[in-house]
């Protein structure tokens, strides 16, 4: 029996995201995520403007009149949500943690998928693959996916994206839409109770995407339609001025004391984080991976809309 408070939280996410899907994103989703190819449907009489290359010469010879083959898009797709459950996802300086935002974005994409008669699957990972839910259709299935993202208790606190992508390649052999929801960090933020963010991170962003992880991302992007959704918090980008803070790293357990009242340290930290964000985006761009950058303290609707619009323009040019 699922506790009432859990059901209430899932239902609130469903209500919030369904409105956005219904009014805006379901149609955009259909436009930018195409099927596997075209299937033969029927033949019909040739009409001015039809492609000559689609003429069915056998039928044309029998009927003594030009006929063309008609094709329809092989529409059914599989959407795989690959969600990072490492310890850093519990952090959020406002009303939402990064994990809660990931669940909401997953809900938007999953409901868009099932409205287009596509399947949705889920891989939860930390240092290992925590849970796998095979792709299926239907509202009840999507609600289960949301519940698992929000409330699954991971066995591990660290992150191993490479292992998750290797598992993906084994369980999803055919082309799919793969959406990775993560902060793409190795050593990571403290918990919400600890208040601030990566004040003494030793592993920079471009290094946390190890060569193995980057190679796995490139391989996955060649096989699938891969989208990286990076979820961050404002205090991971700029330090708050809160004086001395005692912080605990959510993944390593390391405890440090930091003076956030020092303006020079705050400026240096902000500059460093901006550079690291640029480095990470360059890595994704060089690998040909589409990205969406989201923050826990900002509305996500505009960022999702820009992503779909950019993709649609690119597909039209292509």
Radius of gyration: 23 Å
Strand content: 15-25%
- Amino- and carboxy-terminal Cα gap: 50 Å
Low-confidence stretches: 187-207
Strand order of the largest sheet: 5-4-3-6-7-10
Strand count: 10
Number of helices: 10
How much helicity do the residues have?
40-55%
> Based on helices, strands and strand pairing, what is the structural class?
alpha/beta
CATH superfamily of the largest domain: von Willebrand factor, type A domain
* Total domains: 2
Question: What features would you describe in this structure?
Answer:
44% of the residues lie in helices and 21% in strands. It has ten helices and ten strands. The model is unreliable at 187-207 (pLDDT under 50). Strand 4 (119-125) and strand 5 form a beta hairpin. It is an alpha/beta fold and 318 residues long. The radius of gyration is 23 Å and the shape is elongated. The chain has a six-stranded mixed β-sheet with strand order 5-4-3-6-7-10, sandwiched between helices. Helix 1 (4-32) packs across helix 3, helix 1 packs parallel to helix 10 (301-317) and helix 3 (98-115) packs antiparallel against helix 4 (139-151). It has two domains: 4-26 and 77-317, Rossmann fold (3-Layer(aba) Sandwich), CATH 3.40.50; 39-72, no CATH class. The longest helix is centred in the N-terminal third of the chain and has 29 residues, at 4-32.
């Amino acid at each position: 029996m699922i506790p009432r408070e859990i059901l209430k939280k899932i239902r609130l996410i469903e209500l919030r995201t369904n409105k956005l899907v219904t009014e805006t994103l379901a149609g955009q989703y259909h436009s930018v995520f195409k099927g596997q190819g075209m299937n033969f449907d029927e033949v019909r009489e040739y009409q001015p403007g039809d492609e000559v290359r689609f003429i069915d010469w056998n039928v044309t010879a029998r009927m003594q009149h030009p006929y063309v083959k008609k094709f329809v898009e092989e529409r059914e797709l599989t959407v795989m949500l690959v969600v990072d459950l490492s310890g850093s996802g519990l952090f959020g300086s406002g009303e939402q943690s990064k994990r809660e935002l990931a669940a909401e974005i997953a809900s938007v994409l999953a409901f868009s998928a099932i409205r287009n008669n596509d399947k949705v699957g889920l891989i939860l990972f930390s240092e290992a693959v925590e849970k796998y839910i095979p792709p299926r259709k239907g509202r009840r299935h999507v609600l289960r996916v949301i519940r698992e993202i929000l409330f699954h208790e991971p066995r591990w606190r660290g992150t191993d994206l490479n292992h998750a992508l290797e598992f993906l390649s084994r369980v999803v052999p055919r082309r799919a839409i793969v959406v990775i929801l993560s902060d793409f960090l190795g050593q990571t933020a403290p918990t919400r109770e600890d208040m601030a963010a990566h004040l003494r991170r030793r592993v920079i962003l471009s290094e946390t995407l190890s060569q193995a992880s980057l190679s796995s991302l490139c391989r996955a992007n060649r096989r699938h339609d891969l989208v990286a959704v990076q979820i961050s918090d404002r205090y991971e980008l700029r330090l708050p001025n809160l004086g001395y803070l005692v912080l605990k790293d959510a993944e390593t357990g390391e405890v440090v004391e930091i003076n956030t009242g020092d303006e020079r340290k705050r400026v240096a930290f902000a500059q460093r984080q901006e550079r690291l964000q640029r480095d990470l985006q360059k890595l994704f761009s060089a690998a040909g991976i589409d990205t969406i950058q989201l923050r826990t303290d900002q509305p996500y609707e505009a960022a999702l809309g820009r992503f779909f619009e950019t993709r649609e323009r690119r597909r039209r040019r292509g």
